[in-house]
Design brief:
Blueprint (H helix, E strand, L loop, with lengths): L2 H19 L14 E3 L2 E2 L10 H7 L5 E6 L4 E3 L24 E3 L2 H10 L4 H4 L2 E5 L9 H11 L4 E8 L5 H4 L5 H4 L21 H13 L2 E5 L5 E3 L5 E4 L6 H10 L4 E4 L14 H11 L3 E5 L2 H8 L8 H10 L4 E3 L3 E2 L5 E2 L5 E3 L6 H5 L1 H4 L1 H7 L1 H29 L12
Parallel strand pairs: 1-3, 2-14, 3-6, 6-7, 7-8, 8-11, 11-12, 12-13
Antiparallel strand pairs: 4-5, 9-10, 15-16
């Protein structure tokens, strides 16, 4: 179908949605101690089991969850027929467990954009759809982002969450190591033998963030604060906090200063735990990168804010950090709405994945209640809702303006540089 014909169909769909939206109730109020906007929400798992946007709005976004990003995970877990994961009793639906690699799943962008454009304006106003189906180490990724905007105008607000360095995930992603493709085999300073496929020094990342700045999109980036060597089954081989990624992050934002970036989880993860000086490192990155924010998402990470282990920042220190950067911190759940198939050490199925219940989802905001009590209601309101609304509403306006200005662009002839 010609792109012009597709745009006409999208326009007709938008008009129909507008007409339908006239009779809908207004979105819930964003003010109040129990209100949240989810800056980090995954609508499907690593096997693309998940929920539709209608299901998300109907079953999970009740009055207290007023806004949400929609982040399809960019990576599919390969179901390798020769591995016979779990004795072929269940399929692999998560990166932790199977040996097979992860690969980028570009169809996700079309799946959700198609549905988003059928929603009413009121429904669309509560969701912020993110482009995820691109390889951040590929210099053609910037073209993919622009093609997604031009093919589905009116659909997207941001990109990501996309991953550079992440515990065992970056180790499993399909692709050649940088040492194999680089001239003379030279590797950038943030790659290792076991994590040699991705780098913060990649020109592709600069291209992506310059595209983010040009289009007005918001980017959510996952990059651990320090390297962790973890095997496919979750065995930790080494944690190397002394080799942190602070320099790599700051050089990236300097090269694309106009990009709006949310650094996910302040660089923490399942195995990458906060060190004594964690907040000092994050502060230095934010000070060097005025266009960057952070999200405080993922229940595993949030528990460490509230119940820190020895050698971690205290809850009071987290409260001081949030207070200092109160306009640049966003709350998120990092929920994956469809749980994974779980097997024990012998490969015997323990539980089968299923869609999360509303009560399970709404249990996540309660984790950070002690932190929000410490910072007070005004700052809490900013982090829970206000910063999200300001950032994503501003992005929507910029992106829609970029789309209008480039409506005549030929998606089959976009410049690669």
């Amino acid at each position: 179908m010609p792109i012009s014909s597709f745009r006409r169909i999208c326009t007709v769909a938008a008009c129909a949605a507008l007409a339908a939206g006239c009779s809908t109730l207004p979105p819930p109020a964003t003010e109040g101690p129990g209100k949240f906007a989810d800056a980090h929400f995954h609508i499907a798992n690593y096997a693309y089991q998940g929920a539709s946007l209608k299901q998300l709005l109907r079953d999970y976004m009740k009055d207290d969850m007023v806004r949400s990003t929609v982040m399809p995970l960019p990576l599919q877990q390969k179901w390798d027929g020769f591995e016979q994961y779990a004795g072929d009793k269940v399929a692999p639906t998560y990166y932790l467990g199977p040996k097979a690699e992860l690969y980028y799943y570009a169809f996700a962008d079309a799946m959700y954009a198609k549905e988003y454009l059928t929603l009413t304006p009121a429904e669309q106003g509560r969701l912020d759809l993110m482009i995820t189906g691109f390889n951040p180490m590929d210099r053609y990724a910037a073209q993919h982002i622009k093609r997604a905007l031009l093919t589905f105008p009116g659909a997207f607000t941001g990109i990501g969450e996309f991953t550079v360095h992440k515990e065992l995930v970056s180790r499993k992603i399909a692709g050649d190591p940088i040492s194999y493709t680089a001239v003379g085999g030279r590797q950038p300073p943030d790659t290792t033998e076991k994590d040699g496929k991705l780098s913060l020094y990649s020109p592709a990342l600069v291209d992506i963030l310059k595209t983010v700045a040009e289009t007005g999109l918001v980017a959510t980036l996952h990059n651990d604060i320090y390297p962790a060597d973890v095997t496919y089954d979750g065995t930790v081989e080494a944690l190397r906090p002394q080799n942190n990624y602070e320099a790599g992050l700051t050089q990236l934002c300097v090269q694309a200063p106009g990009a709006s970036v949310i650094w996910a989880h302040t660089g923490l993860g399942r195995f990458v735990k906060p060190t004594r000086d964690h907040l000092q490192m994050v502060s230095r990155v934010l000070d060097a990168c005025p266009g960057w924010s952070v999200d405080i998402s993922w229940d595993i990470v949030q528990e460490r804010f509230i119940k820190p282990e020895p050698g971690m920042p205290s809850t009071d220190e987290w409260a001081q950090f949030v207070t200092r950067y109160q306009d640049r911190v966003l709350w998120g759940s990092d929920t994956v709405i469809y749980s994974r198939n779980v097997v024990d050490a012998k490969g015997v199925p323990v539980s089968m994945g299923k869609r999360m219940t509303f009560d399970q989802y709404m249990a996540v905001p309660k984790i950070t209640s002690p932190l929000f009590e410490k910072v007070g209601p005004q700052i809490s309101q900013k982090v829970r809702v206000g910063n999200y609304v300001k950032l994503f509403d501003g992005a929507k306006k910029k992106v829609r303006a970029w789309e209008a200005a480039h409506a005549a662009d030929d998606v089959w002839d976009l410049s690669a540089r």
